[in-house]
Design a protein that fits this description.
Layout lengths: L3 E5 L6 E5 L6 E3 L6 E3 L5 E3 L2 H21 L45
Antiparallel strand pairs: 1-2, 1-5, 3-4
């Protein structure tokens, strides 16, 4: 039976449910795509439903704490390029650095008439 873990990303601070891997302790964040190793397990169970409920409550509680301390001027200005992508090194609304898409150089830009 598979075991599911509740993990927290170091970059975006979001809790997520991931299955335990036998071969390695590495995982990739679904929100910000940061590859990282398992440093702390916040919960584990054989039933994914239980861990999903735990992760939801943890994410809601951290969101509530952030909103209590949030001030309207905390969100930095995002400078965007012509294609709508943020510049490298800029922080988005969630507080982690945005990276340009690897496909951006291959995509055609839209021309408005």
């Amino acid at each position: 039976m598979a075991e599911f873990l509740a993990l927290r990303c170091y970059a975006c601070k979001m809790f997520q449910v991931k299955p335990r891997k036998k071969s390695s302790s590495k995982w990739c964040c679904s929100v910000c795509n940061e590859k990282q190793s398992v440093t702390k397990v916040y919960g584990s169970s054989g039933a994914a439903k239980k861990i999903r409920e735990l992760v939801q409550t943890l994410n809601y509680s951290t969101l509530a704490q952030q909103q209590d301390h949030f001030e309207p001027n905390d969100v930095g200005d995002l400078t965007t390029q012509e294609n709508g992508q943020s510049e490298v090194g800029e922080k988005n609304v969630h507080g982690y650095e945005t990276k340009p898409s690897k496909w951006a150089e291959y995509l055609e830009t839209e021309v408005s008439l």
